[in-house]
Design goal:
alpha+beta, 4 helices, 175 residues, two-stranded antiparallel ribbon
């Protein structure tokens, strides 16, 4: 699914959501893919074909952050090497974070409502989801695409992203 936020800050920025059951990995992450520079300073070099930089926020199961970017390899030849800067919660704090249920139950016991959704937030979510459910109910020809268990999802999801001249990066919740 492709969403758009209609304000000046996010104008023209696509948001793609991919969710499903029995996908290749059980993973929750946010990937921010940065735009390419509008011009290339080094014509006729491999630098013209840079892989976009991205910032990945791993929410579950391995909490952490990874920044990937290209950097010039030292030396007289123009070569770009991939650099990854990673932070993993478990490595830094020498402890595994508690699972979601432990956190939720503890917050209930101490009266901390910060992890619970407010009613207006839930209603906003339904304003996005309900038109999709309605369209699926009305359209008997183009039903929900089926995909094999253990895959990255249906081919139609990749086609949606490719129409915007983008690509889907395989799930990154791996060590």
């Amino acid at each position: 699914m492709k969403l758009a936020i209609e304000n000046w800050r996010w104008a023209g920025v696509p948001f793609y959501l991919r969710t499903g059951k029995a996908l290749a990995a059980k993973c929750s992450e946010i990937v921010i893919q940065f735009k390419q520079a509008p011009l290339t300073l080094f014509h006729e070099t491999p630098v013209e074909r840079l892989v976009p930089n991205d910032l990945t926020v791993n929410i579950q199961p391995r909490e952490g952050i990874c920044l990937r970017f290209g950097a010039k390899v030292p030396g007289p030849v123009m070569r770009i090497g991939d650099v990854e800067m990673k932070f993993k919660y478990a490595d830094y704090f020498q402890a595994e974070p508690s699972n979601g249920y432990e956190t939720l139950l503890y917050d209930c016991m101490i009266g901390d409502a910060s992890l619970f959704q407010r009613a207006d937030n839930i209603e906003a979510g339904w304003r996005i989801v309900q038109p999709i459910l309605d369209a699926w109910a009305e359209d008997r020809i183009n039903q929900i695409p089926i995909y094999p268990a253990g895959s990255e999802g249906p081919a139609e999801a990749d086609a949606l992203i490719e129409r915007d001249a983008r690509h889907w990066r395989p799930i990154g919740c791996k060590d």
